[in-house]
Amino acid sequence: MPSDPLESLVLENETKIVLLVLDGLGDLPDVERGGRTPLEAAHTPNLDAIAPRAALGRILPVAPGITPGSGPGHLALFGYDPVETQVGRGVLEALGAGIELQSGDVAARANFCTVDAAGTVTDRRAGRIATEVCERLVGRLQAKTARLEDVAIVLKAGKGHRFVAVLRGPGLGGDVSDADPHQEGKPIPPAHALAHAATADKTARIANAFLGAARRELARDHPANAVLMRGFSARPRLRTYVERFKLRAAAIAAYPMYRGVAELAGMDLRPVGEAPEDAFTEAANVWADHDFVFIHVKGTDMAGEEGNFDAKVATIEAVDLALPRLAALAPDVLCISGDHSTPVPVRGHSWHPVPVLVHAKFCGADGAERFHEKTARAGSLGTFASKDLMAVLLANARRLDKFGA
Amino acid sequence: MPSDPLESLVLENETKIVLLVLDGLGDLPDVERGGRTPLEAAHTPNLDAIAPRAALGRILPVAPGITPGSGPGHLALFGYDPVETQVGRGVLEALGAGIELQSGDVAARANFCTVDAAGTVTDRRAGRIATEVCERLVGRLQAKTARLEDVAIVLKAGKGHRFVAVLRGPGLGGDVSDADPHQEGKPIPPAHALAHAATADKTARIANAFLGAARRELARDHPANAVLMRGFSARPRLRTYVERFKLRAAAIAAYPMYRGVAELAGMDLRPVGEAPEDAFTEAANVWADHDFVFIHVKGTDMAGEEGNFDAKVATIEAVDLALPRLAALAPDVLCISGDHSTPVPVRGHSWHPVPVLVHAKFCGADGAERFHEKTARAGSLGTFASKDLMAVLLANARRLDKFGA
Questions:
Q1: Binning pLDDT at 50, 70 and 90, where does residue A405 land?
Q2: Contact call for A66 and B391, based on CB within 8 A
Q3: CA distance B364 to chain A (A)
């Protein structure tokens, strides 16, 4: 069902929904541990108490076989079509760096590189300079080039040679080519407009002026004597949770990237520490003023990326241990799932479906003994697109009207 | 996911994929055999050794309830949307007859019929003449009408009264009406252009000239004294496996129809005998120069069409017996499935989902004891569209980049 018909069915209600996202939750059976997944191996008495009374299933973030990045993974969970609603690399990078983007901002990924006297790029990563060097250089560029024409330049250092550049001012647009040869042995191409639009022209002009200023400023900073920029993108204007779902939503997350995507959906942002109990305590704090609380737990994904089975189990157990705090709020709908799978053996995001649990008055009790990848496979929710999860949650919250007479 | 985003994620890799298609594999439980399907009843020790370590699931060739022909069934397996990518009847018939279609060729299904002195069709099947008679008459027509204007006419006899006609020359198109009244008691309507296009006009003109010439040649050959033509269609230009997936693909098939569809996808064609061991030996021959090997086994479908449970079991067992030869190639991804179901009790193609097995390093071991319709139902791959199978295979072959940051 397209998003518009869904929106037309949304009702007001007093009910409250919790979406608890264990990042990269889904995993694969480990043959050396009796074919168990981390979720299966974890000791989760509190989750086990909910599981039999819940409906289980699996969600596909984008499509079969497609491995999502964190952006599409969360956009889908939030009910946006992750293919139609593409958020540019620069915007995601800026959100991940904790820059609060404003409407109309254009963000780009940037990094230091090495050019020779002829202007040819000899090292696209500037010898992989240390993060401290990057921070110092970014500080100098920021001081020197805070504004070009009527556009403010906002820079933020990342890891190693990487940083983020945000252009903030009137009349900018994201349709601009990369100022990056994408290989060594070539000069840096100037950014140029990819569309016949004054906004793209202006953005390219400002970007090129910034690159020129950076080149002059860095002339004696070999190997970091020039800058590349790519992934220019404008902060998209998404319809918000209030507009779409009549939900006052809060996002509780330790990492800026996830708060950033939530901010695109119009959620109130609540930075917290990484411990699940802190996140759940914050949920109690926002409870009175919100109808929807998104809580992000990063540890499961990090453990998966590191190929650390035990660390993934430990994160799941820490969530379980703190779960009574969340359950004490008595949400009308409690949903536990992930934005994608990050299986320990893969050591990265993957394409495998993600287990999902929904507990609500009318969810239907599947009677599964526990919640994990295998029980989810046989669950009453079936396997469906992540972008449709919000409809399931709204339905369980009795916030959707009948479709048709 | 639309095909373009998928293509944009395709990576180069050294991995190799085998797609083993047992035509019409899916079946229904036979109550007289303890509710077992042929795949369940077959003795398959080699498949049984792979099954627990594989991911199982089911694929839907077109949509729930839709019974596919062999063309759509294979196009979907090959990753083309079988509804958007329609290949005309004439083209499928020509490919099935083993005619190597060239770009720009227009093909039509043709057959002999009987007309009376007034030109009224009295028998659309010319008294169902014998195949030998058809071959002789087609030979005469071919000798008499090898060329019309600058268009070569290529004919190939089929079974009974049927044959295939291919028009090969510049400026032809498939948008042409049938020269077939579709019922008896009416005259043969001349072919006419269905679009305002010079290509359609020319094709209709050539087709009508051919029909006229055939009528004169066959005047004394009652009951086969005229020809009908229908399903005019141009060989479509599909984006090939190299273009879409960066895969050098080979198609190993005994029957021309399946090589024909594979040829549309740009696969290298390898005709072989019907024995699975011959097909698997040929896979070894093409192994070094290809990244993707499609192997087609026809026996399962033929047995299903005949309603012969034991013959279907025997074909499955023959595949299993030869399987070590294929496994010895150690493909990075081994997929076993079918283009559609041809259940023994149905005695024809059907709409039932088709079991699929995927074995790869990160497929996830479902731990199923065996591979058949029932274990597939509970498999981790779930039930998904056949057209998405290629994405799953590419993902398992580590040939897909992450979608979004």
A1: confident
A2: yes
A3: 5
